[in-house]
UniProtKB/TrEMBL annotation:
Cross-referenced InterPro entries: Pur-cyt_permease (IPR001248), Uracil/uridine/allantoin_perm (IPR045225)
Pfam families in the cross-refs: Transp_cyt_pur (PF02133)
Protein's cellular compartments: Membrane
Membrane-topology descriptor: Multi-pass membrane protein
One term under GO cellular component: plasma membrane
Alphabetized UniProt keyword annotations: Membrane, Transmembrane, Transmembrane helix
Membership in a protein family: Belongs to the purine-cytosine permease (2.A.39) family.
Source organism, top-level taxon: Eukaryota
Any one GO MF annotation of this record: nucleobase transmembrane transporter activity
Annotated TM spans: 43-68, 74-96, 108-129, 135-153, 165-185, 191-211, 232-255, 275-297, 368-385, 391-416
Region span, Disordered: 545-572
Protein name as catalogued: Thiamine transporter
Amino acid sequence: MAKLLGMLALKDDAYTGFESNIWYNPDIAPLPPKRRPWSHIDYFGFTSVSCLCITAWTASAALLSLGLTVGMTMGVGLVSKVFIALLAIGNGWLGAEWHVGFTVAQRITLGMYGSFLGILIRIILSVVWYASQAWLGGLCVTAMLSSWSFGFLNMRNTLPPSAHMVTRDFIGFVLFQMLSLPFMLIRPEKVRIPVALANFFTTCVMIAITIRTCKEAGGLGPLIHKGTDYSTLSPAWAWFYAITSTVGGISSGILNQSDYTRFAKKQGHQVPGTIIGLFVVGTLVPILSILTASASVEIYGGEPFWNPLTLVIQWLLDDYSPANRAGAFFCSLAFVTSQLAENILGNGFAAGMDLAGLFPKYINMRRGCLICAILSWVVQPWLFYNTASVFVAVMASFSVFLAPLTGIMLADYFIIRKQRIQLRQLYTGSKEGAYFYTAGVNWRAMVTWIVCFTPAIPGMVANLNPAVVVNEGIMNYYRGNYIFGSSPTVSSPSPSVYLPNTGLLEGATMYTALCYIFTIKGAGLEDDQDYYGTFDEEQIERRGITAWNGPKTNSEDEDENQVNRVTPAAVA
């Protein structure tokens, strides 16, 4: 076993000379300037990826099902994007300034051992969403192959009903998984051009689908004027719930923004791209989605086509002509590229970084990505779409847990530490370390986290299981838990009386209060020199610290329980 572990152990950091150990490896170390190439335009591309995938296209259906009109849906989208932009920029500020990702940032907030809990939650979510997006990507491959072969389009199903999928879709899923593997071997900082190409291709195709559908319908269709009538919520609460559910739906992406802002050339380069991507691309896609779905009702009658793949397959079923086949092929190919970009960049890389932070001695980001892809089979994502699966609904409700953690992280970095941290202390298990706290856990953060998410649990359970009945105040607390909401004892049906002391704001407020009462030793301090070669000349001058002089032995590390111990071999 010892020999096997020795073979699996990662090599030491060739750049800094530091040894890969249980707290450190090159993928979770502060990034050097040469690995930080992302500029304004790259962050525009990164933000646009999540707006151009199939789930983003179909999101409007969920909002309209709450009883909102099209105009209200667009209004909800704009308000939600304001919150998303503020939270994403705020949570990513640490990464762009100190060049470390979510896994290391968790050590600051939760402690060296406490961080494992936050990282584990992110890993679970990343694997589940990777599996879900991979299944959708497989359906894109299926549609593309169906445009090549009429026989494939009408392939006989050889799987039993208990499989909850058909042979054709399973083949598409396998091929998409295989297609994803080579892209996982690319470092995140080098995916800028492929992402930009995928975004451009997908945008053109989405516009083309909308134009074709509206042209066939001879107009915009009925949905654009009246919306839907499925909701049992009052209009005020439907609007309110739509905002919090939209923001909460992307809560896991907000939480780990520093995983990507750490690649920024300069602090602030992530801001314009994030804002423009959210408000331009993020507004365009719902408009196209609603117009297409509305026009599809005029063409086919019945329920609107919210999934673009369903519409593409319908083209082939209606008329397997060369023109339809070509259109279906290019549309499917575009969605394959967008699903690859969204899934690998947003889920695969995230899981890889998180696993590297959980087991840094043996797992780097590439190994972590591959592990995520393997685990995605265990999740069986076809059940999410072909059965009444409660599992995916549970995962979607995880914003109950992520909201207070996001608030705690923001308060800890901006208020308690005043944007100053000690990088060197983030890679040591010494009991004297700045982030060891009490037995390796920041109890202030843990207590705050538990207190804030607990009141929302009954509402979450009732939302998942209609047989569970709770009072309306509890449900309204759950509905507004991410940003707004209030004490569950309030029972007024009007959202105007609900005070903003929810998961996120509750977490920030309570954590700040605890830290002022029980002060954190060393909060607001930073290193006196650049130990990792992560700062450029401007940052070194601004901080007034000693510049990095390259790999060297640090005798003081031995006095601090071997902080990033440098081996003789690495120094040589």
